[in-house]
Amino acid sequence: MAKYVYLFSEGNASMRNLLGGKGANLAEMTGLGLPVPRGFTVTTEACTRFYNDGKVIAKEIEDEIFATLSKLEEIVGKKFGDPENPLLVSVRSGARVSMPGMMDTILNLGLNDEVVEGLAKLTQNPRFAYDSYRRFIMMFSDVVMGIDRMKFEKLMDEIKEKKGVSADTELDAGDMKTLSERYKELYLKEMGVPFPQDPKVQLIEAVKAVFRSWENPRAVVYRRLNDIPSDWGTAVNVQEMVFGNMGNDSGTGVAFTRDPSTGEKKLYGEFLMNAQGEDVVAGIRTPQPIDVLKEINPDVYNQFVEIAEKLEKHYRDMQDMEFTIEHGKLFMLQTRNGKRTAQAALKIAVDLVNEGMITKEEALLRVDPKQLDTLLHPQFDPKALKAAKPIAKGLAASPGAATGKIYFSAEEAAQAYNAGEKLIILVRLETSPEDIEGMHVSQGILTGRGGMTSHAAVVARGMGKCCVVGCGEIIINEEEGYFIDKNGRRYNKGDWISLDGSTGNVYGEKLPTVAPEMTGYFGTLMKWADEVRVLKVRTNADTPRDAQQALKFGAEGIGLCRTEHMFFDSDRIGAMREMIVARTEEQRRKALEKLLPMQRSDFEELFRVMKGYPVTIRFLDPPLHEFLPKEEEDIQAIAAEMGITAEELKAIITELHEFNPMLGHRGCRLAVSYPEIAEMQTRAVIEAAINVKKEGLNVVPEIMIPLVGDVKELKYVKDVVVKTAEAIIKETGVELEYRVGTMIEVPRAAITADEIAKEAEFFSFGTNDLTQMTFGFSRDDAGKFLEEYYSKKIYEFDPFAKLDQTGVGELIRIAAEKGRKTRANIKMGICGEHGGDPSSIEFCHNVGLDYVSCSPYRVPIARLAAAQAQVRNPRNKKA
Amino acid sequence: MAKYVYLFSEGNASMRNLLGGKGANLAEMTGLGLPVPRGFTVTTEACTRFYNDGKVIAKEIEDEIFATLSKLEEIVGKKFGDPENPLLVSVRSGARVSMPGMMDTILNLGLNDEVVEGLAKLTQNPRFAYDSYRRFIMMFSDVVMGIDRMKFEKLMDEIKEKKGVSADTELDAGDMKTLSERYKELYLKEMGVPFPQDPKVQLIEAVKAVFRSWENPRAVVYRRLNDIPSDWGTAVNVQEMVFGNMGNDSGTGVAFTRDPSTGEKKLYGEFLMNAQGEDVVAGIRTPQPIDVLKEINPDVYNQFVEIAEKLEKHYRDMQDMEFTIEHGKLFMLQTRNGKRTAQAALKIAVDLVNEGMITKEEALLRVDPKQLDTLLHPQFDPKALKAAKPIAKGLAASPGAATGKIYFSAEEAAQAYNAGEKLIILVRLETSPEDIEGMHVSQGILTGRGGMTSHAAVVARGMGKCCVVGCGEIIINEEEGYFIDKNGRRYNKGDWISLDGSTGNVYGEKLPTVAPEMTGYFGTLMKWADEVRVLKVRTNADTPRDAQQALKFGAEGIGLCRTEHMFFDSDRIGAMREMIVARTEEQRRKALEKLLPMQRSDFEELFRVMKGYPVTIRFLDPPLHEFLPKEEEDIQAIAAEMGITAEELKAIITELHEFNPMLGHRGCRLAVSYPEIAEMQTRAVIEAAINVKKEGLNVVPEIMIPLVGDVKELKYVKDVVVKTAEAIIKETGVELEYRVGTMIEVPRAAITADEIAKEAEFFSFGTNDLTQMTFGFSRDDAGKFLEEYYSKKIYEFDPFAKLDQTGVGELIRIAAEKGRKTRANIKMGICGEHGGDPSSIEFCHNVGLDYVSCSPYRVPIARLAAAQAQVRNPRNKKA
């Protein structure tokens, strides 16, 4: 029979999957002899069982919980529900990976009408006892029963109003007792039954609530954004209460062993005396820096510093710890590997290697490739920054520069985003888990309240978003949608501001940004990554400018140059349209003649920039109607320009109309219909390569035929390419190597890859189209129903962002295997957007591809992800 | 080293793949000691080699041809190019399967200026010699060099005009000599070089021409229509000439051992005295029935009858033979299994079993399932037929009834077809291979000239089309597009006529047709088929009428009932639209309430008709916008009807617009978004089944969820179905078995079929969508480029008509295997249009599916094809 409940003393850090991160670390700290309040963990397997059983806790699990509770009572020497000597517990969730703010916590569980009186006597502090009771009733009602918290707050406000006071601290024991009575009445009214007095009932209901919260919408969204499978489940930690709010010799705080923002090696944290843990994290009162504790209670401070050092050495990573001081005694409530900014992650990883704590390979695994994004995105232009004057300053919670239009609610931000706005700043008094989606779509977050460990700060750092918190200098009116800066100027919804997440400065204008420099720790880690990885990293680039940027970021070639993008320029679209409108091959060839020199010079430039690195050029791919105008006035204008009537042009547009353009006349199908297009493009590539070769650069162009589904299709186009290329090579007398390959982006191509490899000298997996066709939905149309799929947990991630390894991945596996069977050394890469996604890159590594190709700004991410893949699953470097 | 050339005496009938059908049978007849003019065959492998070598005959093959020619000279005792004793040969193509009229033939090869004089002396018949020479020059110029035959005809006409005669026979030896001189001049003018005098050059050029003709557009089209792979190639038969045109003791003819139209056991054929073979086949002169030969030359007739019987016994099938009589001596030029009508095929197959010549299993293989189509399609309504008066009578060349609008060229017919017209009759003076496509799109063919073995007759029988030939009673003017009947009435392009292919009658009106009766030979063969086959045959039917029809044809259940078709009825579309326009679940449920009783009664009727056979009901599949109006006036009208403004309706239509509807919000995605639709449909199915069950019928409905790509998607919808169904079963207290399964039509479903089988109780392969998504093109859009694909030989068949076994088939194989791995006894079928295609049915059999489902009229075809599959590749019947 499975064991579903573990005392902290029975577990350790390696049991993270079973006990959750928090539970495993509490067990580990217990084992290390640190002062941890005693308790036990209900396992993640119990959670999974809960869902499998239809959201019910099985009898055997309930029995095991109570049996372990009895053991805990014995150890602690207190009894659940005993007014003389009551055991009170906290109930907290704890999944495998930390999900900050996502899960719900209940404190002071075990209180009831009798026990609260006993507690008052025992502590000789009736105010504390009744404050604890009314807090518990509210938390239980809110978290377990789903009664709106605001209704309780209102009762509190009524009492304060009646007494003519404004702060909670001004209420006395009697007020708190009254309040707990009123809270119970409210509970009865809302639920139809009295507030449960049996602590065991309270406990089981709380455990269920934690399990249920695993499926609350915030948690589901968080998991989707962070690639956490829903079948992991959460554990529940039941722990003896310790109270930071027992008076001025009590307190609570959080701290990091290194600065989570910069990575600097020094204890970094905040605390509040006479407070419970939630008060610090929620950002309601602004806490004091950890150093201040040294003055208040040097013994406790020194003990904490010692523990912190011990924990960092033990875990060999920067720790994020929670502690409580009860009547001058220190208790450790949590430790975990601390979340950190990308900059801090890099510095800590490199420092730990230099300190001899970890190896280079381990260091590579310590940085989340996705985090690098923040380092790679633009910073403010220093000149503009120098000239700009801040309108306010807050805490620099998460670095980077952000500029955007302001919105005052997560919904507004999301709406603006969906309407196509990309530069958004979310401005809030403080954030809560409900704001996650809104934060996700924003460039930066600005809050009026809260400290460096407030919700906004922690989440923004995790997301790698620029964030300024606790900016009390501005007055925010969320409801009416404006804020007033320190000079009295008003900023309305939609106005531009800029945030500097590294200084905390806020600017009342749109500031220009510049590309970041990559040096120091970044460079070191990237060097290590390059030493380790076997997967090459190329870039998707259509212009010399993009190619240049990608080279700076370490790209080793172009994996996808989309030639059609070259035709959209205003000076070219004319000739392109002429080509499309052509009714005879002759007319078409005439138009193509005009396009030839443009394409040729584009390729020359690209080859020059890429200095001998491989360049893969994809031939014309989109349906031709994409190049034609859609609006009446444009049609009129363009027809005139083209020397035909608007009616003629409309007739052509109608003729080119397709029911399903994604599944229409595009890709190599165009070249099959009009081989002269492939001929022109071959001429442009080969002549450009020869010209650049004459300048002394070695160029081996790779010509890629898109949308192939049958080897004969590829052969037909390849024959055109080879015939044209060979003729030019013969004409010019310049020897030139070149390759002809194909995209694998149609399911049939994957299935028949053995046939296709007979003709293709390389494969490039076009996972955007392959995903669309394998799933049978188009990216443009799926938006309408994907939200339903996420909320109903049918899909847990966006298959266009993260490769679907089960379905699409299986096709890639089949294709790679079949391709190699025919042509052992066939070069294979991926050029869909998945090429920049770490988990997809790991898949590419495991399946034996030679390279990934991604957008320029994703190149460093890909380099690191490729290195991590090699550390996790080493494979031989190809000869 | 491969052997590329075989003397007839070196081959036999089993070498068909190498020698082609004609060559193998000539060899076989030679072996049987029949009077066959001697010769040799250049193999199909030589043809393949010719193409691989870049359309060049390799030196070694050329050498082998000439070496074999020398042997032939020795055997025959004549010499190629020797004026004293010249060897003349015919050069004919011969592929593995006969392709009537597709390939080009050259006669009298070996003639030149010297030889023709020798021949004149030798035969003492200068007219014959020079007629042969000028024919040879013309054929060589036309077939080998591609010079327009009309230019030669014109020279002939000039001479006739000058002499004031009208028939060729009125020209004398001198005229023929003059003509051959003129022909040579024309050749020189056209080609820039003189007509080749070296017979060896003539021979090699002719062989090349035959090889090239394998790729001529007519041949390519024919192969596509008949599923013949292009890599088979054609052989070339070089054979000593015998002359049917040497005078009145000479002649030529074709005959069948049984009547190819009815199957009646009697010698059936036609001949012409003093004629060459082409004269009979081309239908220029109308030949005499074979019986007449008995009177003209009883010895030859008796000898021929004896040979015919011998051949039929030898080949154990009805033979189609060509013969020539030269100066009273009989020569066999060809034998092959004769093409026949569906009726004849059935009768012959059953008769041969009864005569003890073949087994029942062999008999099943003797009927092409596709041919049954003709038997299954409507005949004229007997009453209407009785009342109708024929306007003309021709030869009943291919049975069946056809009614349609008349067109006078293949192009016009094809245009009308492409414009959406489905009832077309092609009216021609005579047909030629260029007309194939036009014949294909027509319901029937009527010609003014030619006999039962003319091009039109042979091809129409092959296609299973109704055909009346040699209808001299009408005067056809192809150019101006009309014909005049025997009463002087004029019928213009686009007028309606009707053809009776069983009587030869032509009617000047549109006649109503009725469904055919299936009895006699048909019934016998179908009974044998049912005894043999293991694959079940179901039908795709949405209405009780279709279901009834299918049952008559032997369907064993409904494999696909498309529920959406039930919503398009004018009395239902209103409620459907109301459902689509609904903005809330409540509104939607209200509209669904209206649809429920309609669906329920539909299903009740269907269940009643199907009398306990399984019925698979697919839930709503198409995108919702398909149900909304498109034209401005319709929008106005429907908005008014729905009680909303036109603007509101337009907004809804716009909102529902999809870029790629095929890849959009449809199938189970609708049920995921609006589970209440699945709920209503489940209710309709289950309640209907219970109601009908109460009437005493056993119903086990199968609910099919479309467009599933992920098991969780299926599970979500299945949960809705099961919950609803169980509630109803509980409510009513009636026990009901039902199954929930899915379509496998998205590539991802095939790839993850092991997962999907955890939830699906059955799979139905939706090969229409699966083909679209696997190839990455939509049926609606592919028309634009598929023609190029056929003409460039990238595709050899339409993947929507015949299953692509390499790609789509591989996915089916994978899915079937994975599905069985999870659920060993999972029921699997196919319900795409491929379910009615014989080669696809064979695939389904081989891959182990349980059933195929096809349109009602295809059911008998499927039954026969399934039986053939079992005869060819026996598999165990499922328990």
From TrEMBL, chains A, B:
Mg(2+) binds at residues 745, 769. Residues 520-870 form the PEP-utilising enzyme C-terminal domain. Residues 17-294, 302-351 form the Pyruvate phosphate dikinase AMP/ATP-binding domain. GO terms for molecular function: ATP binding; kinase activity; metal ion binding; pyruvate, phosphate dikinase activity. The keyword Cytoplasm does not apply. It holds the Pfam family PPDK_N. The active site is at residues 455, 831. Its cofactor is Mg(2+). InterPro entries: ATP_grasp_subdomain_1 (IPR013815), PEP-util_enz_mobile_dom (IPR008279), PEP_util_AS (IPR018274), PEP_util_C (IPR000121), PEP_util_CS (IPR023151), Phosphohistidine_dom_sf (IPR036637), PPDK_AMP/ATP-bd (IPR002192), Pyruvate_phosphate_dikinase (IPR010121). Keywords: ATP-binding, Kinase, Magnesium, Metal-binding, Nucleotide-binding, Pyruvate, Transferase. Substrate binds at residues 562, 618, 745, 766-769. SUPFAM superfamilies: Glutathione synthetase ATP-binding domain-like, Phosphoenolpyruvate/pyruvate domain, Phosphohistidine domain. Its EC number is 2.7.9.1. PROSITE patterns: PEP_ENZYMES_2 (PS00742), PEP_ENZYMES_PHOS_SITE (PS00370). Residues 424-504 form the PEP-utilising enzyme mobile domain. It catalyses: pyruvate + phosphate + ATP = phosphoenolpyruvate + AMP + diphosphate + H(+). It comes from the Bacteria. Belongs to the PEP-utilizing enzyme family. This is Pyruvate, phosphate dikinase. The lineage of its organism: Bacteria, Bacillati, Bacillota, Clostridia, Eubacteriales.
